Fold:
Amino acid sequence: MRCGWHLIATAVAASLLLLPEAATAQRRRDTTTFQWEAVTEADWNVGKDTAWAGAHAVMIFEKISVDERKLAEDRVYRSLYRRIRILDMSGRSQAEVEAPMEDAEQRVTRVIARTVLPSGEEIAMTDKDIHRETVLKVKGAKWKQTRFSIPGVTDDCIIEYRIVYQAERSAGGWLIQKDIPLVQGEYRWYYCDFAKQRSTYYFDLPFIWVPLREPEYVWTNVKPSAPKRFPAPGIEDSTEMLFTVKNVPAREDEQMSLPEDSRVARLFCSYGTGSLPIEFWSTMSSSMSDWMKDNFCGKTARMKAVLAAALPDGDSEQKMATAYAWVQDSIVNTSFVDLQEAMEERGVNRRIRERTNETADDVIKRKYGWSGVIDALYCSMLRELGIDARIGFVVDRDDDMFVRDFKWWQFDRSLVVVFDSAKSTRFFAPGYPHMPYGMVPWFNEGVQMLLEGTQGEFLTVTPAGPSATSQTYVYDYVLVPGEETVGKVQARLTGHAAGTIRATLFDADSSEYKELLDTAVANLLPSGVRDSLTCTGVERAADPITVHCALTFPSNEEQAGRLFLKPLDYFVSRDNPFVAATRKTPIAFPFAYQRNEAAQFTLPAGWSIEALPSDTMFSNRVGKCGVQFLQLGDKLSVQRNFTLNAPMWKKEDYRDVRALFLARQEMSDRTVVLTRAGGAATN
Amino acid sequence: MPAVTAQAQPDWLKEAARQTSTAAPHKDAPTLVIHHSREAKVDPAGGVTISVCWAARILKVAGAEASAFAEHVTTTRKVKDLKGWLIGSDGKKSSLDKSRAVEVDADRASGHYDDNRRLIARFPEVKPGDIVAYEYTIEDKDPLAGYHEGFVFQVSDPVAFARFSVQVPPDWQVQMSSHHLEPAQYRHQGGLHEWTVRDLAYRPDEPYMPPWTELSRTLRVACFNSKATDQRGFADWRAAATWARRHQDTACVDTDAVGATVDQLCGHLASPHAKLRAIADFARDQIRYVAVEIGIGRFRPRAAGTTLANRYGDCKDKVALMRAMLTRAGINSAAALASVQDRVDPGLSSPFQFDHAIVAIPIEAVADLPPFPEATVNGWLYFDPTDEAMALGRLPSHLGGSCVLKLSPDDTTLTRLPDLAPRDNARCYRATAELNADFSMRAAVTVVDYRIRADETAHLNHSVPLTERTKAWHARFANVLQNPSVTDLAHGAGGDSAWTSFVLKGSNAAPQSGPYRLLITDFFHEGEFADLTAKERFHPVTFGDPAEIVTDIVWRLPPGWAPAADPERITDSCALASIDCRTELDSGIHLVSRLTVYGGSIGVEKYEQAKRVNKSWRASHRMRSLLSHANK
Structure:
């Protein structure tokens, strides 16, 4: 379960505050007269050149108009006009169109569409072709969606459609990159003049109150260009920005990459302070710092008592570790567990009504809090101990990446940062249950962190090195030609590998434990059929997890008196995700790790090793891997190691990443030749 | 929280919980259905009322996730009086807060519009050991489809008790169709028909098993009153066909636009066969698949002129348009109802067994029609204009051997379409491969497909860009060869075949082992098929549709290197498939293998034969050739 600052920020974004002096609401109808733009020779030629070779369809243009001049009255008018060149049969699917979802705050007011054939014939969509369906209905609310299939579409035509809708909220921006190429795009933003509207939006977090009045924009993953700014034609005193893009390729998927939202071309449009990003983040940072100092740490008598009672004498490292354990053990983390159930398990049998904790002492008194408050409590305790500790904010990189120029609260989670005397930094995540001392969730490693009490600077959360996540496997297999290979595995896992198991099992009760364990280890063990699975060490975050199980694999077939054994088929297996020759986006693994595997194969009676592959070692800056083969009497010993040095790599590093994984794949194909005594027929 | 203070539990639930309290189902079963009853009562004035009771003991986490209430609803089919209970393994009881039920669009898909919704409700926290139960009533006012009811007694989960009953008014009759219902007890008294099963054991998922639609224990009933003045059900296939034909023919109307299109397509063609082919191609290629199945649109096609103007339609729209065009071209035709999902039971004369429509053309109507034995039965040629790949004269594999209802006024019969033969779905992989001195390889590859498979490949070549097809071939070799590359992709088609050719390169195609090199002799198939390894078998075994796969690879070896072992030969066969694979050795290696899948399934008693053949073909696909150097 994820819960944290992101949800708070979302809640705020959804309840942007409108001051009472807003103008009186008035109805405004969409009176725009619209005419299709003329279809040109250039439109017909799209796709005939080589620029978009292989595309089934190309979007000739997308024109979006967003009118937020009445945003202060909760009225926003948007229109979307797309023209698409259909180039073959598969491209016809572009004629199946879904308008944005409708709810109490947004509704589609007009839809028109048509097909234009090369002959010039035009086929207009009629109202009966438009379907407005209830997608989801619950008591008191409905979500509807308008969908339509444009008629008359051939595999060589142009289609176009326009959707007009009205909403109560700001549009937020433009998702530029599509599943087909876009030749020309424009986004016309009639923004709200808050001064004229005599109103203001406020950005509301527990620690900050910032007026947002200035229109702002940020491009991502596309060459940025300044918009044209001008008064809207014929509209008195209005203001307008026109953003344009050209020749945006279609989205493409690559394995082991960042979340799609962070890879595609986007334009964010929002209202802000008008300040530079560094000023904005500085304000955020210092406000958070003030809140910690003046509010959260305003009452600390209980905290001091806890520190006095719970902490041993010793150096600051011991105290930090003890405080960490105390916070995780003593405070119910309501972001991850049901408060009532957790309290009952602790012997509290009265009905608990969850209340907001304002201070560190509130948290200690009530013995519960959400993950952000637990982080703040731990940070406060460290400060009380005289340690330079601060709160920082990060995104979860498996959801989205942080955009520094986009001045909006994008963070999902807080962490605690400690600066030691040598000014090196360490990161802690006490608000994440079962996270070992000194580690943070893997999806926060490598991301930028906004630190409280700075001038808007960011810190990168240093990813844990490979030794922090160690995976050691010992296998013992028995080979019998023509029969299934059976064996045992013992795995010892630390760091993030252990964390993924703990995250699955920490809240499991006895009725579901075994099943969840099987799911949790599925990707951490060899691919054979598992049996007799057991696991120890889950309870304490600091402990390694040890997994034992029996494994069964399909048989090896004898071939002319020989067995060709690929020993690494019985190891933890992974396909090579980097078979493509080139790379367009950065590479993102979950975490760095090192894996050492050692297997012993008992050979079938009467069989011996005829040939062994060579030992091999490969190493580059991305990582290393190696494999060794050895005959020990009637047994075959095989060892493999693999190390990935870091989780995040630039696309420019792809050559090295690919080389490492190709080397691993090549080693996986190494084959041992076994011969039946006197049985092999050799030319 | 959708759970509220517990309402009193009904007696059926108490009894079911008591009777199954000591049951010990299979360790892999996610739930044990302790009670499932569905009592349907037919209203002579139209419609059906169904009372449903369902309860299950949750055994695994997956079972908890599947314990939600979900019922199909439409504008004419409503769920009423929904109640639910959760009995925790710790004895705690709570009831379902039905105000939290959610109605969602059931099968939302691009280009598909219908009335179908799904009403869903669930308890927030269900854990293994809990019992979940629901009780509700369905009112189905559909005047025709409501009389066709189905009940699934069991798919996979064990069932302690299940009962289905249908109560019809006097003068009404019931047709029934059952599948794997041998354990059921049937009782009939007056207008009441009742089927009961008890203690059905868990049925596991297994590789190479027939689809669950074929294995599930199901019952379908169709009720009818042949004496009614207005239509109340279908007494026989003729009545069903008459009803369906009326809908089809209403839409199959010639218009000026239809005529103009036919003139444009066929005006220059003298041959009836050429006209038929031109119209078939048009209906298949130029009308994109869009289904608007709302209200009567579920059964009645849109007018042919509308479909033509829209350039879109579903299967029955395409059929109606194609027939209107054929009529204009002077070629007689009929619609035929088919089923893609379920097997049609000839004993149940209900048009609601079908979910698809195709076209039937009397061959006498096309004087110069060549023989198309794969798609012709009793003088009628069948064609599916919805399948984008199939040419006139061939049917998609999922229709092979299935029953269709031809809606001809003169000749309404249930017809079984021709079975697919292995040669109708054949592929041949040919490669001339060269192993270089550095043990990289280069192969000139040609893949030839025949008949149905050729149609599918030709369609793929036409609709998927070269770059994507190259990527797909590349992905196929990515985990077999080191660093593979696929270049020079080309394709073509002619007669009943289609071919694809490319150059395949890879490094380290013969990994080292001691003094030897182990050549990956067959690089086409490694990892392509699942393994049959379990000691015991529950379900029949099927290797899928009939097919033939031939592999022919000639390897040239680098100077000084030669095969170090005798030629290999693997042959095996059973009722499902045969494999014949051999290598011939000279200065190089020549591998030829032929895998023939005959289709159908075999019973558990022949599992060992299937397992053995599976093992043989796995061995042939994983074959390695040991190479040694003359100087080593």
User: Anything to note?
Assistant: DSSP finds eleven helices and 39 strands in chain B. The mean pLDDT of chain B is 92. The longest strand of chain B covers residues 482-494. The two ends of chain B are 76 Å apart (CA to CA).
